[in-house]
Amino acid sequence: MTELICIGCPRGCHLHVDEENDYKVTGNSCNIGAEYGRNELINPTRTLTTTIRLSGGNHHSLPVRSAHPIPKKLLFEAMEVLNHREVKAPVKCGDVVYADILNTGIDIVATRDLD
After folding, report:
1. Residue 50 DSSP class
2. Helix, strand, coil: what percent of the chain each, to 5?
3. pLDDT tens digit string along 50-61?
4. pTM above 0.85, yes or no
């Protein structure tokens, strides 16, 4: 049995996930908690936030994030890929700066306008 604190809503329910019973979740106050607890043990995901190099602008780096959470096990590999990426200014918030990172179907997007 694994214990987690749910981050799906502001309640912060104390979840108990039973891996031996098909990842049954107890302690949740809503369906978000049940889904979070199950997913956190089967395939945890996180939103990747970082910066990448920017050329031709007033700044040297551009803040970016994944458009959707990516599998936690791929975070360091994705960071390595982005470490070798450079984009040219100007960039608008929401522009895709790296499409389909690591064949996940998830894009990396700019989170700031930079000229």
Report:
1. E
2. 25, 35, 40
3. 999 999 988 999
4. no
